[in-house]
Each structure stands twice: as C-alpha cells, then as structure tokens.
Please model this.
Amino acid sequence: MTAATHSTLFPRVPDSAEAVLDGLDPEQREVATALAGPVCVLAGAGTGKTRAITHRIAYGVRSGVLQPASVLAVTFTNRAAGEMRGRLRQLGAGGVQARTFHSAALRQLQYFWPKAVGGELPRLVERKVQLVAEAAARCGVRLDRNELRDVTGEIEWAKVTQTVPEDYAPAAAKAGREVPRDPAEIGRIYAGYEQLKRDRGVIDFEDVLLLTVGVLQERHDIAETVRRQYQHFVVDEYQDVSPLQQRLLELWLGDRENLCVVGDASQTIYSFTGATPDHLLDFRTRHPGATVVRLVRDYRSTPQVVHLANGILAQARGRAARHRLELVSQREQGPEPRCTEYADEPAEAEGVARRIRELIASGVPASEIAVLYRINAQSEVYEQALADVGVPFQLRGAERFFERPEVRDAVLLLRGAARAGGGTDPGLAGAPDMPSQVRAVLGTRGWTPGPPAGSGAVRGRWESLAALVRLAEDFARSRPGATLGDLYTELEERASAQHAPTVEGVTLASLHAAKGLEWDAVFLVGLTEGMLPITYAKTDEQIEEERRLLYVGVTRARRDLALSWSLSRTPGGRASRRPTRFLNGLRPGSTAAWAAPGVTRGTAFAAGGERGPVPARRRARGPVRCRVCGSTLTDAGEIKLMRCEDCPSELDEALHERLRDWRAEQAALTGQPAYCVFTDKTLLAIAEARPGTESELAGISGVGRRKLDRFGADVLALCAGRLLASEDASEETSEDAPEETPEK
Ligand code: ATP
Ligand code: MG
Model:
C-alpha cells in the first residue's frame, strides 16, 4: 500500500548511521541531520516529508544522539502510525514510540490516572451520537439525523477548542461557525451531554486529550515524569493539529525546543474538528531560531498526476493557498489521468471494478490499488461491484492485521509447529524448507495455493493466510536457512510493532482516511457537486477544505489516476447531477472559471474510460420496464410501482401493514401528512420489493437521497422483519468518519 510495504518486505537495514542518509536529497538530509533545536518542514504532497522525519529519527538513534525510548513521534491516524513504526524498524530504529496523539495520551492517562485521580480510568463511550440524542431529548429537542450529526460535530469542535458549554454560543459566533440549531440550544445539549457522561461514568474521545492536558497542567510532578521520559518530539501532518493537541504538545515539551514538525497547509482537511494550519505556518514566529526547510521535488507521482494536482491548487483561495508550493515531479512520464462520466452509480461502480480487474490482470497488485470516496456511505456499491468481479478488497487497510482471529490462530499454530521442531508433525514431515512448512501448517486452516471463489469472509480469511505465506517466503529469501522459530520471532516482533505484511486486496477508504498514504493506482469516485464539495460545505472556507480533499486524493496516486462521477444515482433516474466544480477547466469539455498558469483547458485529461465522457443529454432517463412482464412503462403510477398495474403483484401483506403503521407514526411525529413520508405507491413498491440493502431501497422510485437518509434504516429494518430501535440515533454520526479520522 505504501512505499515501505510496496518495495520488498525485507529491505536491507542500513549498516551505519551514514547509510541511513543515503537515498535522501540535500534538503531532506538537512532535516535528518538537524537533530537539535526546532525544525519545521513545509512541503507539498509526496515530497518525502514522512520519509525525511523517519530517517531523521533513525539517523539520530543510529548515531547515538537520540535514545530510542526518549523519542515520541506523533502522527494522525493509526494507519500512519503503524506505517511509521514499520519504516523505523526497517531503518534499525525499532524501539521508538510512533503513536497518534490520542493513543499517546491514552497510554499516559491510563498510567497516571490511579496516582492523579485514583481508581481505574473510566471507560470510553462507544456511541457518542446516542448520548447526544439523549441529551437533546432531555432538553426537549428532537434532532433529525443530519442535525444530530452536525450538533455532535459542534460539541466535538467545542471540546477540541477547549470551549465549555456556557461559552459555546459566543465562541461559535466569534469563530463564524455555521450552526445547525440555535446556539443557546446547542450549548444546553452540550451541557446535558457532559452531565450524562458523568452520570454514567464514561469519557469520550476528546476527553482523553482534555484529561491528559488537565493532569499535566495541574500535576507538575507528573508532567516532570513525562518530560524526563520524552526528550524529542516529531509531529507529522502538523497542518491538521487541533488547539487541544497543540496544547498537549506544549505540555509535553515544557520549556524545551526539541521539536520537529512537518506538514503541508494545502492538505488541511480536518478544520471541522478545529484544526488549523496556523501552527505550522507560524512556527517560525513561535520558534525564532527554527530551521525551516522546504521540499518541492515530488517523488511519488508522475508528471501527469502532479500537473493535475498543481492545477487543482492553482484555483485555491485562502491562507493555505498563499503558502502553496508548486510540485515538480521526479518520476518518469505516465498515463494521463482518466476522467469518466457514467449514467448512474451502479454503472460507475461496475466500470471502476472492471478497470480494476484489468489493472490486476496487467500485473498491478490489488494492494496497490485504492478506491477513495468522500463519505463512508459511498463504499457499499463498490464493495458489491468488486465482489461481483471477484476482486478482493479491504475496507480499513491492514492495520489490525495481527488482531484478526485467523491470524492469531495461524501464529499460535506456527509457534506450536516451531516448538515441535517442525519435524514431528506428520503434516510437516518431509517438508524441505521453512516456507513449505508454513504452507503445510496453514493448509490445515484453509490456505490453498489459489484463492477460493468469491470475495466474502472466506476470501478475507484466505487473504490473511496468503499474506503470512508470502511473508514466510520473503523472509526465507532475505535470510536463507531461517527456521520456523526465526519466523515466529519475526512475527512476534511485527505484531508488537503493528507492522502488518501486505494483504492483497483493493483498499476502499474515505479521502480523510487516505491521507499520508500512496498507491500505484487510485480511483476517485463520486466526484459530483453535492458530494465534493459536500452539500453541507457552505462557507468559502468549507468549500476550500473540500478542494483540498480533492488535492489530497489526487496526490495519493503514483501512476494511474482515474476520476469519475455519475449523472444520476439510480439506473433510469433523473440525470440531475453535475461533475464537481473543482475540475472545471481541468476535465475535458469544461470551461475554466479562472486562468491557471500551465494548465490548458481540456488538455489535462485523456478522454479515457470505457465509455468516455458522454454528453448529458444522451444519458438522461432510460426507459423503465415492468419488473414482472418487462414491457416499457409510461404511466407515472406504474413507473413508481415498477410494474404494470395488472401484472401479478408479490405484495407482502404483513409488511405492507407494518409499513403503513410506521408511516402513520412518522407523519404524527413530524406533523406532516402521511404522503410526505412516502406515497401509497412507493410504500406498496417497497412492500413488494422487500429491499435488503440501501442500494436496493434507493432503486425504488420515490426513495430519494433525503428520504434514504431519513428513513432508510427504519424501512430496511422493517423489511428485514426486525423491530425498530427507539431512535435512529444509534447510527454512526459524522460521515466524515470520525472513527478513522483523528486517530483511534
Ligand atoms: P504526504 O504529503 O502525502 O504525506 P510526504 O511528503 O510525506 O507525502 P513521503 O510519503 O515521505 O511523502 O514520500 C512519498 C514517496 O516518495 C514515498 O514513496 C517515498 O519513499 C518516496 N521518496 C521520498 N523521498 C525520496 C527520495 N529522496 N528518493 C527516492 N524516493 C523518495
Ligand atoms: Mg507524509
């Protein structure tokens, strides 16, 4: 997935401190060798910032200047932290702590809690949204799903900016927040939420940082202990540091200045959590003696990808944009980015899946391919399409590899075989070398030389085992004569460093979760107005952040980059969508609303794709056919029903009854007439079709995105014959994926 895992799994560990510096350019070397005092690296995507800081730590450790245990490297996501631990290990600096702010804080808090407060650290709340909904209900406020998401976001923002409930309203006004409800009301819900947490003895994600800051601020003895432990700090992705994280960093540092930060203001994508690139851009002001290094050579992407990335940033506005650096690709030429317009979402997913299969057939490993989207809800149709063409995929990457049940089981089994000497087990008798022994052992757990059919759970387990087999093979190549025992030791070390082997499978991830990572081929999908920028991005700053998200997405690609969108959501639906404004002047046939140096209208893209861009007119509503007899429908009522009135109906009477009751309840709750929830025809169509998935439900006429968001979960639960939970608040909140956003 990234450089470290992409190249060979076992590169040679540099044999000296000086050798660690090989493979760095002069500016990167400057970063790596500036081991004392504050250092700030301002550089664009793919210029080797992460590489420079990992080499800096390794150089410091290998040259004896830094004690491994005294270094704390902080990054933004678990995935990135795992990646950094892997890179450090390969450079011979395995003992260094590389963590997210959150996990570093949690570890310290757990350790110091008994001394600072007494007792055990309270449990982390699992369903924050549920608690917010409860708090709102206690205040007599009923929030719909979107409001709930937005109010929860406001509470998170307040907490990371260290704003207490009483100050929320004035603080939100001062910060120019676009608030989803009356600010005074949000302040009350926030207060109620905090009270509920106290009542139940739980803490939330933000509390971990708040409490750590509190303990370090108030207990000088504890702060001193932490400072004695950690002498050197390195922060990656510093443009996305929140005020709370910044405060924690300052407390860790005390009055010392051994801090190295790297970042790219043009990749600020967490402003919604209160993050700001100001800390990065003002670093010199706060640390006047700082060494500031700029990197402009892009080692990651081809000139074609870099050209598009520069074109996107050329249209950017705001402070981050004023600090942007034009990237210069160091790589050989590659294909032009492909830009494809599809009639509808299923067609887009199918087209992307087909293209992925072609890439794999041409030799690109599945682990070197990613499909990136704006919100997690977009993944489903891609999961389906990839499953349909038999391509394995992974939703969250391989970061928890060693915690997977099949991997634990396999590792235990390998340990058993290693202890038995590899020879006493009848299955292993006669196996000539270590990899064959591994294949024999894992064969008892379902590993086979070729993958099983399909791409479900069985395939997932097989991919894990196959990754272990490959690891054994690579390990044996790099260390001829290695035994099962040696392999087991390697596996144990990797597990404790969370250094996962490469699992074959296309990565499906949100743009937010993709930051810092890279793949040979990247598919950016669903690039329509409303999705990117997302509908709820309203202010200029929010729109700029959406543009930066596209920039982050584009710069994840090493070589193949495909951008796509669809004109309608469902087959035969109204072709009402437009491609994202951020590609204006950059995609074929579009006009530039601006004049960017070096970007000529319409030439940035090959008009690629299976079908190529199709004029919107031709792709408008297709004929709708009766799902019973197949004849073309013209009557609006029949179209809604998706069958001729007199064709036999497969109506589920009981379900229809339940749906009608539910609709009456909803109507009463919202004070609207029943047909505003769903019309009779739509309700009938649902009861006939019994949709099992959101996309099936979406395929029913009369079920638009808004209805889907609002009622989808209820309707699907009814169709599945489940009783409804009291509220839709149990759903995950923020579609900005907080579970994989700032570190968890
Ligand atoms: P991002 O902003 O996306 O986090 P980054 O600046 O951290 O990017 P890296 O991930 O460190 O960039 O590097 C991008 C790619 O370029 C990696 O594959 C890395 O190994 C490679 N690379 C960086 N510097 C060099 C170099 N001097 N020589 C060869 N390859 C390099
Ligand atoms: Mg990086």
